[in-house]
Amino acid sequence: MELTLETRELKFDYDGKPVLDGVSFEVKEGEIFGILGPNGCGKSTMLKNLNKNLSPTDGSVILDGTDLAEIIKRDVARKIAVVPQTNEIHFAFTVREVVAMGRMPFQGMLSGENADDKKIVEYAIERTGLKDLADRHINTMSGGERQRVIIARAIAQTPKIILMDEPTLHLDISMQFDALNLVQELAKEKGLTVVIVSHDLPMVARYCDRILMIHDHKIHALGTPEEILTNENMRTVFNVDADLIKDPKTGRNTVILHDSLSSH
Fold first, then answer.
1. Taking CA 15 as the corner, what is the angle to CA 13 and CA 18, rounded to the nearest 5 degrees?
2. Which residues of 109-145 are buried (b: 16+ CB within 10 A; e: fewer)?
3. Interacting residues of 213 by C-beta distance below 8 A, sequence separation 6+
4. pLDDT tens for residues 38-54?
5. Pick the CATH number of 5-219 from 3.40.50.150, 3.40.140.10, 3.40.50.970, 3.40.50.300
6. How many Å apart are CA 213 and CA 236, to the nearest integer?
7. DSSP state of 136
8. Helix pair 115-127, 143-156: axis angle to 10 deg
9. How far is Cα 264 from Cα 260, in angstroms, rounded to an integer?
10. CA dist 56 to 52, 62, 211, Å?
11. Is residue 83 a contact partner of residue 164, using CB atoms and an 8 Å limit?
12. Cβ of 218: how many Cβ atoms within 10 Å?
């Protein structure tokens, strides 16, 4: 059975001020779904509602036909993994220990790792190119290396859905491609559903099957990159003059940014 994630008339307020206002959408199994908008529009708040770190002021989040409010956090974690925007880990855990934390939702209070857990952890370490760094302490690593470890931890969680908040923020350019190519491979190979929150127009254009564009705390547009990343929408939401084109070298979508409208 397909695993579905949807919101129904989702509203969220901070101190009485609307951050999200009546947002409804459904994410399909195996797709890469982008939530796009400028800083401060409510994207990260949306992600926190999708994994029960926040509860809606009104409306609901539905996971596989059940309201998230009725599902305990541990069961949510068995289906949904998160790659947060901040990747600070202040304790001297090794890479392997951090990745192994992804198995915690499946372990009992007194039972540690079993053979299957260890296999899954090693697979996640290998897929993210961390094999040579597995015994390094994470607090000695660069921001980009730490981000790869957090992605590996999410893979080790064997989720059906991964939520990624600005996943390329700490990565250099080549690692951005590596990380998102990996996520795209997992979506195709394993039917993994990926929700990416970002303000990076070219990255979302390249990797996402569908895009939800948020403006003024509401849905401004929802559809394929070709439908959503129009010059008019990018002007309205991001205040930039930009065009969606096919990269002649790769055949993939990308966005050419011409100028900020405020500089005209």
1. 30
2. eeeeeeeebeebbbebbebbebeebbeeebeebeebb
3. 36, 37, 219, 220, 221, 222, 228, 233, 237
4. 888 889 899 999 999 99
5. 3.40.50.300
6. 11
7. S
8. 140
9. 7
10. 9, 12, 22
11. yes
12. 13
Q: Which two tokens stand for residue 183?
A: 């996520």
> What is the share, in percent, of the chain residues with pLDDT greater than 70?
96
Report the relative pairing of strands 32-36 and 193-198 from DSSP bridges.
Answer: parallel
| Residue 1, pLDDT above cutoff 60 | no
Q: Tell me phi and psi for residue 60, to 5 degrees.
A: -155, 160
Note the Cα 47 to chain centre separation in Å: 8
pLDDT > 60? residue 264: no
User: Residues 90-98: what's their mean pLDDT?
Assistant: 88
- Over 54-110, what HEC string results? CCCCEEEEEECCEEHHHCCHHHHHCCEEEECCCCCCCCCCEHHHHHHHHHHHHCCCC
Q: What is the pLDDT of residues 239-254, one digit of tens each?
A: 999 999 998 898 999 9
The two structure tokens encoding residue 185: 């491979």
Rounded CA separation 225/222 (Å): 9
Q: How far apart are CA 233 and CA 212, in angstroms?
A: 12
For residues 78 and 81, give the distance between their C-alpha atoms in angstroms, rounded to a whole number.
Answer: 8
Residue 146 is predicted with a pLDDT of 86
